[in-house]
Write a structure and sequence with these properties.
The chain is mainly alpha-helical. The chain has one domain. The chain starts with 8 loop residues before the first helix and ends in a 10-residue tail after the last helix.
Length: 110
């Protein structure tokens, strides 16, 4: 079983001051690196697991991906704890930083 993205090395080194200095583009790039750590930030289709997804932004600028194999649309937060929520990515990164840097630690059981 693959490691959960919140337990990746990139997620564990994230700090709150660093997160709040990110621009939208930097937050997007960091979330991609944390989410798809094993592919170095390249999107992986949550439906079929395909690695040949491409970027197709909405007219509003919202980031979406489309899988070439199964034609499914998905976002950076699809099939995560943050799926179907509309907060900025910086808020999700802040939550990840708080979770991963908790002094007493958290027990994660998927």
């Amino acid at each position: 079983m693959a490691q959960h993205f919140l337990l990746s090395s990139k997620a564990k080194t994230l700090s709150l001051p660093q997160v709040f200095r990110f621009s939208d583009a930097e937050a997007e790039a960091m979330f991609r690196q944390i989410r798809w750590d094993q592919t170095n930030g390249a999107p992986v289709c949550p439906k079929c697991g395909g690695l040949d997804a491409y970027e197709c932004r909405r007219p509003s600028g919202a980031l979406r991906f489309r899988c070439k194999a199964c034609k499914a649309d998905f976002t950076i937060t699809s099939r995560t704890l943050f799926d179907n929520h509309k907060l900025p990515l910086r808020m999700y990164l802040a939550a990840i930083a708080v979770f991963c840097n908790e002094v007493k630690g958290k027990v994660w059981s998927p």
